[in-house]
């Protein structure tokens, strides 16, 4: 299978659906057990997803042969649906392994630009 084949897209969709359902379930569980003082569900999926992608990313960089189909199902699909923060964590980690300066630059750019875009759009949307 190659790039945009229906089979590969189906794997990403299947994994994404499962990850999204689990993210929703974790959110409900966290709210029931921990309340709403903090977004516990978001924190939980970000930490869990980052840990899982750390295991997979580290194993792949260490030489584990992970077939493209499994990578698309598990990483792009499932973890992408579960939390996009996990993908961000992997990107920072891979860049850091290549060059710590690039890793730090990407981390800072993503956080600062992301929060800046949020603040601008949030402010504009509240005015309209």
From TrEMBL:
Relay the activity regulation note: Na(+) is not transported, but it plays an essential structural role and its presence is essential for fluoride channel function.
Catalytic activity of the protein: fluoride(in) = fluoride(out)
- Report keywords, A-Z: Cell inner membrane, Cell membrane, Ion channel, Ion transport, Membrane, Metal-binding, Sodium, Transmembrane, Transmembrane helix, Transport
Q: How does it sit in the membrane?
A: Multi-pass membrane protein
Keyword Ion transport listed? The answer is: yes
**Keyword Aminoacyl-tRNA synthetase listed:** no
Q: InterPro entries, from UniProt?
A: FluC
For molecular function, the Gene Ontology terms on record are: fluoride channel activity; metal ion binding
Q: Which GO terms describe its biological process?
A: cellular detoxification of fluoride
Instruction: Give me the segments passing through the membrane.
Output: 43-66, 73-97, 103-125
Any idea where this protein resides? Cell membrane
What's a GO cellular component annotated to this UniProt protein? Answer: plasma membrane
Listed binding positions for Na(+) are: 80, 83
A Pfam match is CRCB
The job of this chain, per UniProt, is described as: Fluoride-specific ion channel. Important for reducing fluoride concentration in the cell, thus reducing its toxicity.
Family note: Belongs to the fluoride channel Fluc/FEX (TC 1.A.43) family.
| Name of the featured protein | Fluoride-specific ion channel FluC
**What is the species of this protein?**
Teichococcus coralli
């Amino acid at each position: 299978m190659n790039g945009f084949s229906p089979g590969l897209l189906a794997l990403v969709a299947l994994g994404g659906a499962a990850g999204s359902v689990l993210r929703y379930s974790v959110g409900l569980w966290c709210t029931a057990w921990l309340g709403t003082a903090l977004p516990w569900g978001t924190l939980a999926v970000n930490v869990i997803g980052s840990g899982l992608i750390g295991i997979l990313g580290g194993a792949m960089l260490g030489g584990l042969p992970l077939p493209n189909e499994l990578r698309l199902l598990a990483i792009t699909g499932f973890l992408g649906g579960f939390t996009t923060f996990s993908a961000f964590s992997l990107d920072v980690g891979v860049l850091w392994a290549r060059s710590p300066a690039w890793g730090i630059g990407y981390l800072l750019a993503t956080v600062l630009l992301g929060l800046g875009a949020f603040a601008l759009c949030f402010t504009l949307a509240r005015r309209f």
